[in-house]
Amino acid sequence: MEITISYYKPDKQVFFEKFNKAWLNRYFTVEPIDKYVLEHPEEAILQEGGEILFAAYNGLIVGTVALKKVSDGIMELTKMAVDEPYQGLGIGKVLCTHAIEKARELKAKKLILYSQSILQSALAVYRKHGFYDVPVDNTKYKRADVMMELIL
Prior knowledge:
By secondary structure, the protein is of the alpha+beta class. Helix content is 34%, strand content 32%. The chain is globular and about 40 Å long.
């Protein structure tokens, strides 16, 4: 098994949108903020100083995660998704590890994320990487009932 990480190029936008809309539609609904970010990642994430990572498994893109700049020193780990047939292979862990490393390179001092308590496997990945629960702020996501942060 070989998992490689690459960064956003316009031809990869389709994977970013497809993988994220799949899990959102499976568990929740695609909210207006999701639709905007997934359909316009250059505007929503990249031009503000963020980054989007992709995981390839044996050469096939199967997962993604984004780092969105919130403010100086703070980034949001967001839109992490692994294509369903490839879940359970550790791809989410690899994406999370690389996203944390990239956030450090981008001089972030803190990473935050929003999630949902039914997504136990995702929460487990975050906790293994050192994220801890904090009170949920007035989040932009209706579905979010978990907020976590990691001091870098």
